[in-house]
Write a structure and sequence with these properties.
The structure is a single chain. The protein is built from 23 helices and 13 strands. The strands form 5 sheets. A 4-stranded mixed β-sheet has the order 4-3-8-5. By secondary structure, it is an alpha+beta fold. It is globular and about 65 Å long.
């Protein structure tokens, strides 16, 4: 937990977990919301390191008085939500990071959650816990106060942030509807949902959903936001009900929504093309319907039949299938691709998927490119907000466009800063923070006074340490390449989509994207040929003694 966790700083609720991820062998830090970081601080801990392997299933319980490994044999095999309910009955008030069957069975697309609603560890964090026979981590609320150097100053800064957040016009729609809820089901969703908030967050952008109609009546689930999957639904209401059941099932098993959904779509395509048959699927006719999706989810979590292949992720599954299946998957470092620039154009959200050591995911390098058509002035304003030096901003943002490679370097450091502090990086929270605000908050909490340039240098240092861990594992520029599929037309609804620059003024080639990568490495002070930090950059950051 970072230094802002356990304080009243708005959105300071993230817990961080760093490990080597089974999906691709990369070291990375995952972040999730919930009460865990707050509870950890209240019990008197800043960090916990877990090593080794238990002889039998256990859970780790942390409290202000002691820590213990409890017997989890009776919990083994139960889903993540059931595990949380059982442990809450024993230790409330507490916060819990559990694993479901997918983690127990070392599924590479497994994920875990914090208190049911804060997803954590896309790419197999749950499998790492499963490999240790660690069913859950429980931290009980304690009485240890988080030290704050200047309380009145902190209160003044926080009051200002709260006032801005509460008066923001975008807040009430989030409280009423959650995030990303399609207009077609807004009225229905409002009847089914109840907003949930992490500690210190005034936006309540997570949700509890209870279905009160349809075949899944009585289903109660928790999630960061609703994601719609139509399957073969005949109405919006049916699609909503099926989506909630699907999300609930994946969350309980501990399967990553994006990776499993991409695998499911790939299996439908391979089955339709005859690359896999009923003989391969164990008699299952792979169709785009809710019944097949739920069946394959269970099989994947339990590594049964075809599920044992899906459990290896996109790359592993394609290799096991053979017959040219690898030509039909789209991935970046083993992960499914959340942002396809053929549909969204090439902004920082799309570009950063290439450069993050973790592999494609939704969190890092957010910027105004979340939304299409934002003018360059918005990128300049956002760049100044996250501490891009004035001389650098001139080459990052121009009068009519911006450079996604150069911009992503600073967005990654901004994301790294939020992680270091335990701040939520969701756009609706991030938008209220300026680097000067963060340095003021940091001084108020810790009594350590840094300039904006110094605090951004510290976040760059943290990002670079993560990079060096992966350099040690053999990752370099070859792993940052764009997938071949980006440079082929994507056909949707009879229309072709091609990769374009953010403003959709020109179609991009592979060479164009490689030039953006050159610019990214140049802006970072990395060698363009290898994509690795230079000796000069490591000396600048005080990391010259770490191996490259």
């Amino acid at each position: 937990a970072g230094p802002f966790a356990g304080t009243i700083v708005p959105g300071a609720a993230k817990v961080l977990a760093t490990t080597r991820f089974p999906i691709n062998g990369a070291f990375a830090t995952a972040a999730g919301g919930g009460s865990f970081a707050l509870m950890l601080k209240s019990a008197g801990y800043d960090h916990v390191v877990i090593s080794g392997r238990a002889r039998h299933p256990v859970y780790l319980r942390l409290s202000e008085e002691d820590m213990e490994l409890g017997n989890a044999t009776r919990l083994w095999g139960r889903d993540g939500f059931e595990t949380i309910d059982e442990l809450r009955n024993r230790y409330e008030p507490c916060s819990i990071i559990p694993i479901g069957p997918a983690g127990e069975n070392l599924v590479k697309i497994s994920i875990t959650s914090v208190d049911k609603a804060g997803t954590l560890g896309r790419g197999g964090l749950a499998a790492v816990m499963g490999s240790k026979n660690l069913k859950a981590i429980v931290v009980q609320q304690g009485t240890v106060a988080t030290n704050v150097a200047h309380r009145l100053t902190l209160q003044r800064l926080v009051n200002n942030l709260h006032q801005r957040m509460i008066s923001w016009s975008g807040r009430q729609p989030i409280v009423d509807n959650g995030l990303m809820t399609p207009p077609t089901i807004t009225e229905l969703h409002q009847k089914m949902r109840r907003p949930l908030a992490c500690p210190s967050c005034p936006l309540a952008d997570k949700e509890m959903v209870t279905l009160s109609q349809g075949p899944y009546t009585g289903t109660r689930t928790y999630m960061p936001h609703v994601t719609m999957n139509r399957f073969s639904a005949r109405s919006n209401e049916e699609a909503y009900e099926q989506s909630i059941k699907y999300l609930d099932t994946l969350n309980r098993y501990g399967l990553c929504l994006m990776n499993f959904s991409s695998l499911f779509s790939t299996m439908i395509y391979l089955y339709g093309e005859g690359i896999i048959t009923k003989e391969d699927t164990g008699g299952i006719e792979v169709k785009n319907n809710i019944e097949t999706a739920l069946k394959l989810a269970r099989m994947t979590a339990c590594r049964e039949g075809l599920g044992n292949i899906l459990a290896e992720g996109l790359v592993g599954a394609a290799r096991m299938i053979g017959r040219g299946a690898e030509k039909h998957i789209e991935h970046i470092k083993g992960h499914s691709i959340p942002y396809d620039p053929r549909l969204n154009s090439l902004g920082t959200m799309e570009f950063e998927q290439l450069t993050t050591p973790r592999g494609a995911h939704v969190a890092a390098a957010g910027s105004p490119s979340y939304n299409p058509g934002r003018p360059p002035s918005d990128f300049a304003r956002h760049g100044e907000r996250m501490g891009i030096p004035a001389e650098a901003l001139e080459r990052v943002v121009g009068a009519t466009s911006f450079n996604p490679g150069r911009f992503s370097r600073y967005s990654e450091d901004w994301y790294s800063l939020f992680n270091c502090l335990s701040l939520c990086n969701r756009a609706q929270v991030n938008r209220f923070y300026h680097v000067k605000t963060i340095t003021d908050l940091y001084a108020a909490v810790t009594g350590i006074y840094l300039t904006p340039a110094q605090i951004m240098k510290a976040s760059e240092r943290a990002w670079t340490i993560g990079k060096l861990l992966n350099v040690r594992e053999g990752f370099d520029r070859k792993d940052d390449r764009a997938p071949e599929a980006w440079f082929k037309p994507l056909v949707r609804g009879g229309r072709e989509y091609r990769i374009t620059d953010y403003y959709q003024t020109s179609t991009l080639t592979k060479e164009d994207v490689e030039r953006f990568l050159d610019d990214y490495y140049d802006e970072r002070g990395y060698d363009k040929q290898s994509g690795l930090p230079t000796r000069e950059k490591l000396e600048e950051l005080g990391l010259e003694n770490l191996p490259v």
